[in-house]
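Write out the bound-state structure for flavin mononucleotide.
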Amino acid sequence: MSAEAKGGSETGVGLFNPLTLRGIILKNRIVVSPMSMYSSHEGFSDDFHLVHLGRFGLGGAGLVITEATAVSRDGRITHGCNGIWLDAHVPPLRRVTDFLHRFGSVAGIQLGHSGPKGAGQRPWHGNGPLGPEDAAQRREYPWPTVSSSPVPFDEGWSMPRGLTEADMDELVLDCRSAARRACEAGFDVLELHCAHGYLLHAFLTPLLNKREDEYGGSLENRMRLVLRVAEAVRAEWPDDRPLFARISAVDGVGVGWSIEDSVVFTKALAARGVDAITCSTGGVKLARGQALISRERSFQVPFAAQIRRAAGVPTVAVGMILEAQQAEDVLRAGDADLIALGREMLFNPNWPAQAAVTLRQGAAWKEWPDQYGWWLERRARQLAPRGP
Ligand SMILES: Cc1cc2nc3c(=O)[nH]c(=O)nc-3n(C[C@H](O)[C@H](O)[C@H](O)COP(=O)(O)O)c2cc1C
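---
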């Protein structure tokens, strides 16, 4: 009973309807959203990542996407970010994909470059730019950052250098090499990180892109580098594996990049073989008096819905989606094709398997790994109220 995503036209499906994208079948519509864990060493993942990502596989997610994984050493956000700029980064990632496949999950990797938000502290070390204390306490030194234009991310952050043409060629090559390695590591889905104020988004948004060459100014010019990257990655990434892009659908309320820009951009990405768009928002520091989208439940769903309908491209809804019925309703309304969860998955990695029981009752225990499901099904019967 596999449903194929046809240009975002499918409606009336729920969380537990499979989805076919190119040659890949997702067993359900639940995605673990990429979440940086700041726990890698020189870009290498280790047992932490195997256990952290692996437990989402045990928990029944259809697609598990790694944290933003840097295409170059300087493309990390912090010293703890994951990377794939070396062939040597592949084997530990292969352990993750092998484990996810064993439990029927599709493995995704998010590729990114930090741009103006590079050389940062881990959140729990301050969440600001690296400074003398980080160097003194942990030997974590800042490095020179890059962006579309020399506009710092925020007060106190270093001034990034605007990429030259040669830098852009290198970035395109780095992304292409990273895609080759991601394939060798066994990933089925690749997501390009074009959101949240990082390098690719810094080219898209007029709030950061002040260039006066063919990579700045008009929307067409601001999209140029990202579309080059998408083309290069698509050329490297196997035809039977889906390519996603995560975008900031808007920078804020009536400021900067707009939803109309997102629709144009989505169509341009789709024309280059991008199969689905994850609809996030924000990431660029706004000026006083400008506002981000307010972050209530399902706050980004309207963007996923609008892009899906206007561009006819499958979308992933993300952001404050917490409950099974809430997620189910988003899909049934035809507002998105997939539902990504971030923090709720940290809270409960078994969310998908639990959602199956909530929405589908007893039969869904079969979808838990045998090692857990056999016991829990019996416990559920024991706990069920008995008749008179
Ligand atoms: C710890 C943490 C790390 C994150 N890292 C990334 C990341 O690497 N790439 C990305 O696109 N989004 C990242 N995000 C954003 C999430 O993927 C997600 O879009 C956001 O948390 C909203 O969804 P939620 O309300 O379900 O958590 C991160 C979020 C958290 C909480």
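---
The pocket of flavin mononucleotide is lined by residues 33-36, 67-68, 110, 193, 195-196, 246, 280, 318-321, 341-344 (CB under 6 Å).
The chain has twelve helices and 14 strands.
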